[in-house]
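Annex B. Sample input.
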Amino acid sequence: MGVMAVNDRCVSLLENYDVEVLRTWRGRGCILCETNSGTLILKEYGGHKEKSVFQDAVLGMIKKRGFSEIESIIRNKEGELLTVDSDGVCYILKTYFDGRECNVHDMEECRLAMSTLARLHKASHMEEGLPHPGGSFTVGQEFEKHNRELRRVRKFLREKGQKTDFEIYLMQCYDYFFQLALQTAEDYNRHAGEADGDVPRIVCHGDFQHHNLIFEGDKLCVINFEKCVPDSPVRDIYLFMRKLLEKSDWAKSAGFLLLDAYEKENRLTREEHVQLCYRLSYPEKFWKIVNFYYNTGKAWIPGKNMEKLEKIHLQEKEKINFLQAYKKKYDILI
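Annex B, continued. Sample output.
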């Protein structure tokens, strides 16, 4: 087996696979390999072994049901899904799609992405015999976890002495978003929480966003199922919609186009619409900015953080207008 072009410790791991490697080169956080079986991608695997077994079973189930535009995991010569290097780091070898990411500024591509997600969900209904994937949070638990973190950071900021311009601005808008987070969690637990934790009907992708949607010609392929988890389809719909709505200043036309594209293929239940409304109501982008600030070095705060904070502050009115229109369209009383 000949390995060329990349002098990297993990390249030697390819010797554990029954493939002929013609050349290798670096990708973003990975090694790409041209082989006699096509182009493959070698990446570090951050999860545990049980999760990789679940992931492989889910990919096989989805393909068996006719959705073929997804990756596959290549087993090593020992029949294992993961290969461990001398430092105990796990790697995974997968098939690779040579194309471009979905363009978030092209609404036709985003509409196709939502239609593809609906077809993916129809092919990922839970079946008996799937391995256990490990723990996951319900919506209510996610809200409560985020709120605990927001409380901790608010206390830290209040007790901090000299503050940067970012921290001063953060404090100015903290109470509004913090109270919104608390109220959304309370309302969710009171009105929708009884359904939280019900047996999930599908396996979600878990990270359905444009980075994991690859156009290979006119075919849209879905990659990186490492975060797949049994849950409501709302988990995937919410993530993709929130990112697109933030980029479009919460334009009603964009939001409803995405929802209509999904529901032409796979109708949501009333309970799922209610859950989606609560998820969109929760100030997750604010929590993400706060969480990033608190968990990184605070001596130097990237200017990008200030821009993001200013943007969500300015977008709040448009977001409220979108949510009101959504509740009216789907007759949601929350």
